[in-house]
Each structure stands twice: as C-alpha cells, then as structure tokens.
Amino acid sequence: MADVRTRYPRRRRWPIGASAVLAAAALAGLAGCSEDGGAGDRGLPTLTHDVVQSVLAASGADVVDLSGTLVVEPNGCLTWRTIDAETRTANGAWIIWPEAVKLDADVVLLPSGRHAGQGSRLDVTGAYLTLRQLPGGQDATSFLGEYGRVCGADDRGVLLIVDAEA
Predict the structure, then answer these.
(1) How far apart are CA 41 and CA 27, in angstroms?
(2) DSSP codes of every residue in the chain
(3) Which residues pair with 125 in a beta bridge?
(4) 74-96 burial, b if ≥16 CB within 10 A, otherwise e?
(5) Which of 14, 65, 87, 111 is deepest in the core (most CB within 10 A)?
(6) pLDDT tens readout for residues 52-66
(7) Contact at 8 Å (CB) between 63 and 57?
(8) Phi and psi for 10 in degrees, rounded to 5?
(9) Alpha-carbon span 80 to 78, nearest angstrom
(10) Mean pLDDT value of segment 28-55
(11) What is the structure's pLDDT at 106?
C-alpha cells in the first residue's frame, strides 16, 4: 500500500494573519472604480429620516418639489441639473439621498424599484443646502465633509433629497 503522504502531498498553509492581509489587499484593489480617488469608491451618500428632519429644522431650508436630471460626474459624484428656471443657480449641486435609496452598480435604485442613471429625469422633493449645514460638513476629515469637497459641494452646494418618488 502506498504511503498517504506521497499520494496526497501536503499543502502549504498560510498563517491566518497573512491570509487576512492578502484578502484585505485584494478587496481594497477591487473597491475603487475611479482613477483619481474620486467619489466612485465611497458609496452613496445617504441620511436617515431623523437626521434629514434635524438638518432641515436646523438649517431652516425650504423643502420644494423639483424636476431635474441626474448627472454622474467623471469622478463618480452624483450631481443635479435642474430644469426649474428659478433654481438654475443650483446646477451641479451634490446629491444626498434618503436612506431607502441604494446604489446598484452604476445606477441608483429608488424605493419604487426604478433605476436612475446618467441623464435620468427625476421629480423629487428636496432642499438646497450648503455643505456646512450637513452633519460633519464643516469638517474636511468627516465622511460627508470630505466626500462633499471631492464633489465640489463647498462651491456648488448640496441637494438634500427628502423624497425621490415625488
């Protein structure tokens, strides 16, 4: 009878720590989808209903019905192009979504199941804010503060969408 050790050579086992480091490095390499460290690897910026309500109360911003177009910027940021004549100055505003909205590959999945991508026309209820009015928006190292600056929200503002099904 043949020796089991020669029929089935012993596999080299990686130490658990080394395996974890290799797995983390592989996942980190897959996570980014933009070349310049833009917004593509950050996920979708969302706020919970309670946080949205507190931001609106603190800012005093008016919630209005808006019609516009979703724009996916070259760095992966999602911005707003309005078709409302009275709010054209808000063109290019960085979009903060309700918590129920999800990112599905390169499109946004709305709670209704509708997909919205580059150039999609949207009717929403929302409020225009400054980046500083968001939680952590004044802090360049916070998630929203840093993400917003990459997306130009410190110059072009923020559209806080309250309802994407309007």
Answers:
(1) 12
(2) ---HHHHSPPPPPPPHHHHHHHHHHHHHHHH---TTS-STTS---EE-HHHHHHHHHHH-PPPEEEEEEEEE-TTS-EEEEE--GGGGGGTTEEEEEETT-EEETTEEE-TTS-EE-TT-EEEEEEEEE-GGGSTTTT-TTSHHHHHHHHTTHHHH-EEEEEETT-
(3) 65, 163
(4) eebbbbbebeeeebeebbbbbbb
(5) 87
(6) 999 999 999 999 999
(7) no
(8) -70, 130
(9) 7
(10) 65
(11) 77
Answering whether pTM is above 0.85, one says no
Q: In angstroms, what CA-CA distances link 119 with 76, 88, 99?
A: 14, 17, 22
Q: Contact, 96 vs 159, CB < 8 A?
A: yes
Residue 146 corresponds to which tokens in the numbers above? Answer: 């840093």
CA distances from 165 to 8, 39, 119, 142 (A): 60, 25, 17, 29
Is the confidence at residue 121, as pLDDT, over 50? yes
